Amino acid sequence: MSKENKVMCKIGVAGGAGAGKTTFCRMFADMTPNTAMLGVDKIMYAAFRTFGNALEKAFNEPPRYDHEGDLYLDYLTTYEGRVSIALGIIKNQVEKQLDEKFVEFTDLGKKIILVDSSILPVFKTWQECNHKIIINAENELKVCRLVVREKSKGHRAEYWRNLVHSVIVNPNETPHSLYIENNWSLSDLKKIIQQFSQKVWHETSSE
User: Fold this and answer.
1) CATH assignment of 4-39+97-200, among 3.50.30.30, 3.40.1440.10, 3.40.1190.20, 3.40.50.300
2) Smaller CB count within 10 Å for the chain: N or C?
């Protein structure tokens, strides 16, 4: 059996920007022993920088990066079809690095790996997950969260509003095992996570 196959439980967390994916993952990890968090977005941003020349060739326009080195997302979302083309350019690289991370976490003895990204369902990792979670929230609530969370980037609310409307995970079109409307208080979200944590821990402990 390969090291990668020894990972006992992969949990995919998808949903629009600002829906609360990272909050879910952090709270779950705090409650559940031997859990690792793997954010796909950082890997994607690095891949966008690596394949900057390919993006420029595809769109006849050089990529634009903010002061933190991350791609301005409106470079992709402003024009219809750009997101899927860009993902086609970086997809193999991202999936390769995800597989390497899974092996790394397994070697560290992690039983559960949380993988989160707004567009996680486009990667093969989503199909490999034991549990698939979609988190959603009201659009203006997402915008408010992004303005506060990403304050250092200096983007106005309209930038995040355009992103929120461009990146949507439709639960009616995406296979999943748990759907969460994260419009409530953190205490309500915590109750949902506690129940899910107990379920997953029971599953992994019995294997």
Assistant:
1) 3.40.50.300
2) N
* Per-residue exposure over 158-167, b if at least 16 CB sit within 10 Å of its own CB, e if not: ebbbbbbebb
CA 48 to CA 126: how far, in whole Å? 20
Which residues, in sequence order, are CB contacts of 140 under 8 Å at separation 6+? none
Give dist(CA 119, CA 116) in Å, integer.
Answer: 9
pLDDT in tens, 12-44: 999 988 999 999 999 999 999 999 999 998 999
Q: CB-based burial of residue 22 (10 Å sphere; 0-12 exposed, 13-18 middle, 19+ buried)?
A: middle
Measured distance CA(204)–CA(207) in Å, rounded: 5
Q: Which residues 6+ apart lie within 8 Å of 137 measured at CB?
A: 15, 16, 18, 19, 20, 145, 181, 182, 183
Burial classification of residue 194, based on how many CB atoms lie within 10 Å of its CB (0-12 exposed, 13-18 middle, 19 or more buried): middle
Which letter, b or e, does each residue of 100-131 get, where b requires 16 or more Cβ atoms within 10 Å of its Cβ? ebbeebbeeebbbbbbbbbbbbbbebbebbbb
pTM confidence score? 0.88
**Nearest CA among 201, 3, 14 for reference residue 105:** 3
